[in-house]
Amino acid sequence: MAEAAVTYVLGKIDTLLNKAHELKDWRRQFEQMRQELRLIHALLRDADSKHNRNELVTEWLNQVREIANKIASVIDTFRVEIEGNWIRKKTPSVKRNYKTYKRGLHDMLEDIIQQLNRLYQRRTDLGIKDLGALDDVDDPEPSDKVDDPEVVGLEDDKGKIIEQLLDRKISRRMVLSIVGTGGLGKTTLAQEIYKRLAAIRLQRLD
Fold this sequence. Notes:
Layout lengths: L1 H18 L7 H15 L2 H7 L4 H29 L1 H4 L3 H30 L1 H4 L28 H11 L20 H20 L1
Helix pairs in contact: 1-2, 1-4, 2-6, 4-6, 4-9, 8-9
Keywords: Leucine-rich repeat, Nucleotide-binding, Plant defense, Repeat
Family: Belongs to the disease resistance NB-LRR family.
Protein name: Putative disease resistance RPP13-like protein 3
């Protein structure tokens, strides 16, 4: 559902803004993104009540859900990048990749903000009214818990990816992409890998 996706990603943005110390030039963009999402979130109650009678509203809700999922993936990648500073200091090739990532992130965030604004502006044409935000919009994102059925069946994939990322025989750090159609659990898998690598890092620092 679009409501669940938007609520979830709003929590992720709040957590990012509260905890990330390396947002720098991107903080304004993430704050603007949050504002656009909150405006859209206030429309979802009315949109949900109309989508069975209006295919255009149904498509609009699908687009809202898709952009929310995209933002979640962008945030997951961003977290990995800023938390990966300990790797970048030691690996020149990864440092170069990070610079390329930084250059592209600004344009990516601006594009997302524009997409959100266009979705919000369509409310008048679709007859969607602002009925107010839903109750759980300000709930923070759970820090360690993943209540997602998509995590089931991903253990093998998670183990293989972590094994490759930690393989000391690989002299040049690779970039692994998680690809697939929507709903397969790509974002969940990335979250689980990130948490596991963070735990391993802490163990090595002890």
